[in-house]
Design goal:
Elements lengths: L4 E4 L10 E4 L2 E4 L1 H12 L6 H16 L1 H10 L1 H22 L7 H11 L10 H16 L6
Parallel strand pairs: 1-3
Antiparallel strand pairs: 2-3
Bound molecules: zinc ion.
Zinc ion binds next to helix 2 and helix 4.
């Protein structure tokens, strides 16, 4: 895992997302930051959102910040690929902290709802997102590693 910092979401970040990752830094809004601080007090660091954003930092590191940014904002296909990887990391973090290390269908539905939301400029339908999220849920629940 790459080195990263966690900081409050800056004032200039007016857009609606609650957290985002940029150039080695995870930015979180007040709610997510409070959750992160709570986790740290319990000796944990990886909230599901932080796991999601760290995956984006990995992608930026792997592909280069400029290439990542260009692809993310100009290509639905790339944005979907990047977000699916990040949501899978997020789902794995949720499973990790659950008692039985398993995901419920509610989590798959919640992730599908997020993926299909206007936040990502309609990159996938809810039905397709749900099919994908359930496949990931099943892989995680079966104990399979990242594809
Ligand atoms: Zn994301």
């Amino acid at each position: 895992m790459i080195k990263y910092k966690v900081q409050p979401k800056p004032r200039w970040a007016w857009w609606q997302c609650a957290g985002f990752a940029w150039n080695g830094v995870v930015y979180l809004d007040n709610g997510l930051l409070a959750e992160y601080i709570q986790y740290r007090q319990n000796g944990l660091v990886l909230t599901p959102t932080v796991a999601h954003e760290i995956r984006h930092l990995d992608q930026q590191h792997q592909d280069g910040l400029l290439t990542f940014t260009w692809r993310y904002f100009t290509s639905k296909k790339w944005r979907l690929k990047y977000e699916q990887e990040a949501y899978e990391a997020q789902m794995r973090a949720v499973a990790e902290e659950s008692t039985l290390h398993k995901l419920t269908d509610f989590i798959a539905q919640d992730v599908a709802h997020s993926l299909a939301s206007p936040l990502y400029r309609n990159m996938i339908s809810y039905a397709d997102a749900l099919t994908w999220a359930r496949q990931v849920k099943n892989r995680i629940n079966a104990g399979e590693a990242i594809a």
